Amino acid sequence: MKWLITIFQYTILVDALCTEGMISKAVEIVDTMRKQGIEPNVVTYSTLVDAHCKEGMVSKAEDIVDTMIKRGIEPDVITYSALVNGHCLQNEMDKARGVFNLMIEKGCAPDIVTYNTMIHGYCKGKRLDEAMELFHEISRNGPILDTVTYSTLLQSMFQLGRVLTACELFRKVLASGQIPDIVTCLILLNALCKTGYIEEALKLFEAMRNSGLELDIVPYTILIEGLCKVGHIK
């Protein structure tokens, strides 16, 4: 029991150092663990991988993954997701997809965080069709879609001028009983009003009211301006 607690305590320390940006110190702590005969576990390694990826040191993160595998510790969904995120942050979507495919080959099923990370990366790179392929894959096989998935795709569609596609997806969002967060709702409401899709804007506004979101003057102003634009002044 003492050995397990020691690993737990070291991992907390590694996480705290990484959170504070002291990654090199965190690596030193892991080296100290090994010298004391305490092998870091998958949580410890994943913490280091995530920290390196967020700082743009993806190559170093991959070295850490190689090390853990050589020591007989298999990466889990958190480890792989951190690597996927690292490549996405560097706009290396083909490499991110490679890691994504590898984890599936290894029998490690991506979770919704992994999928959302990939979808966001594709959308950021204006590769909407590939993002939609993943969306359809989730719809068929799981995991359960969440508001982040929908919001990311909807924002990208409007930014790329794919308004009709966005409206179709929006209908699916409403049918699923989910609604994007307030920031995304305002972006969508504004886009719908500016492009003349007032009926869809009204549906979104009503869904926002029914969802319990706290609405200030902004959505009302957007909707009024949209109605005036198409001549519905009364």
From TrEMBL:
GO terms for cellular component: chloroplast. InterPro entries: PPR_rpt (IPR002885), TPR-like_helical_dom_sf (IPR011990). Pfam families: PPR_1, PPR_2. PPR repeats lie at residues 6-40, 41-75, 76-110, 111-145, 146-180, 181-215. Residues 1-16 form the signal peptide. GO terms for biological process: chloroplast-nucleus signaling pathway; mitochondria-nucleus signaling pathway. Keywords: Repeat, Signal. The keyword Repeat applies. Belongs to the PPR family. P subfamily. This is Pentatricopeptide repeat-containing protein.
